[in-house]
Amino acid sequence: MSVRKSIDRQVYRSKQVKFRWRIRAVYLSAVLVAILLGLGSRVFSSRLPDFVTSHFGDALWACMIYFGLRLLWPDRQLSVALWGGLLFCFAVEFSQLYQSPWINHIRATTLGGLVLGKGFLTVDLIRYTVGIAVSWSLDQGCQNLVGIATRIGDDKSLKSHKSLK
Question: Where exactly are the transmembrane stretches of this chain (predicted)?
């Protein structure tokens, strides 16, 4: 291999690593915003409309899961976070059908209740679906604005970005 090609590959990898960290910082910010908005919807529930207090917390929890998956796997296709997020949220909701003293003890704590929920509600599945669909749409729209060419079936989103060439 020529020295020139080796240097070009090293520069490309260096740019790719820097770009991944920037993308991860954006997704970390999105996770933190979703957490703050979700907690805010509980803390300020007396000041918010009933529709917001009833539905936004679960939808924002699903947003957090979606963006968390994007944080873990930024160069995977968006559909991995879409379907993975739905699968995770649905699994947590269906796990609430299992009622045992040991898991109910965990659910009785603040963190356990926020992560695992308290009891199964079918409407939560709709809230999760809406939250993840909104997150995916925002993600897709932002990537289009930045110029990252992605589609649901495109697994090479970062490799096609202008700043990596």
Answer: 21-40, 52-73, 80-98
